Amino acid sequence: MGIINFFAQQQFNANLRPGEGAVLATGIGILNHSGLPHTYVVFGLTSQRVLVLEVPMDPWVQAPKPEGKSFTTFELGQVQIRAEQGSNILGPLTRFIFAGPQGEALYILRHDHNP
User: 78-92, pLDDT tens digit by residue?
Assistant: First the structure.
């Protein structure tokens, strides 16, 4: 992910709690709102939380100058995550459903970028 990965690491490292350690993994996704425009996000995983940074547009399009919009966290101890494999016209995808105290959120993880 290059520039996007560097941007995500900077954003997530600035929001780590004491003792949380480092960001273990990052990824790009889409928050699936039924009937609403796509909301693009960048994920970060730590030993305690899933960090979700909403970005104003597709990170691949806004590179090399990505910017953040809003920040959400999911505590690993308070959320159940289900993963489902699927596909669409663009190819294979993975859906992540986060179910926790705030309700459910469905994210679609982008595996790669095909310009």
Answer: 888 888 887 777 677
